[in-house]
Amino acid sequence: MKDMGFREFCLECRRARRVCQCADIRKLATDQVFAILTHPVERRMKTGTGRLAHLCISNSVLIEGAGFKDDPRVNALIEDPRYFPTVLYPGRASIEIQELAVPQDRRLLMFVVDTKWSLAKSVLNRSPNLKALPQIRFTPTRPSGFHIRRQPRANCLSTIEAIHFVLERLAPGTAEHSHLIEAFDKMVRRQMDFESKPTRRHFL
After folding, report:
1. Structural domain boundaries enclosing 156
2. Do residues 38 and 64 touch, judged by C-beta distance below 8 A?
3. Residue 9 CB partners (closer than 8 Å, separation 6+)
4. pTM for the full predicted model
5. In this structure, what CATH number is given to the domain that contains residue 128?
């Protein structure tokens, strides 16, 4: 795939071929299901991590939209009796992930809003079907490593970091999901390297 500037793009990770991330990706099968809800604004982001998380997690779906009230895929997931649907969002009524009681006959499904923090609340307000679900949160043990994008608060993380922390809470002591952060760190380092060399920015 090429853009109007004739740069070749990878159809899988949607990055320019010169910074393709596919070699960094290893698939992870999780006990949980992740529905990553990507706002259209992320299309313009060179370093969005929602798609990267989706590519790394086999038990995930990626759905684009600014509101999901009438989205058939979202509603099908919510209504599926196999799942226990939740939203990963630190609202006032949210509970720590470790305190969540999931019925034994259902599988934990987490909707993750993938956008700027300033837009996340708007997505939920436009999605009453999601807003009605239990909200879950976690307390980060370290600040974000997303040095190439400014975070509004110290405890704000990128999408892939948030998913990594959730898995870390649900399965402490295991390292199977560590490659999520490894792929993320490589993306950040690669971007910082290219941004430090202005003559190469055209290829991002």
Report:
1. 24-139+151-190
2. yes
3. 1, 2, 3, 15, 16, 17
4. 0.84
5. 3.40.1280
